[in-house]
Description:
Elements: H1 8-20, H2 24-40, E1 45-49, E2 52-57, E3 60-67, E4 72-75, H3 78-83, E5 92-93, E6 98-100, H4 108-122
Antiparallel strand pairs: 1-2, 2-3, 3-4, 4-6, 5-6
Amino acid sequence: MKQPKKSSRAEAAEAKAYIAALPARARSGLMKLRKIISGIVPEAKLGMSYGMPAFRLNGRPLVWFAAFKEHSSFFPGAGAIRIHAAALKGYKTSKGTIQFPHGKPPTAGLLAKLVKARLEELK
């Protein structure tokens, strides 16, 4: 049986609860990340997707972020990572993921480039 869809308010509350429950070092980095993304795309809605906080734009997934035991990750998609590979040399990356130390997300400028590249993909 299909689960009823959560309201955007409930999803935002779930994402905020996820972040609030993290250890302080991980929480501070994800809070910075969330604030920067909100500033870049203020119309994007905070929610949950694949069990982690995410932003949606016009109902479509934009970017995701999460904390793990040894690092935090930002998921802007493979295209954004490929386009900005040179700027990401100091980070561990995979096809669609950037790993960073807890509390030390990529700079606001780099995040802006990655989010804008992802926006271009969604057009």
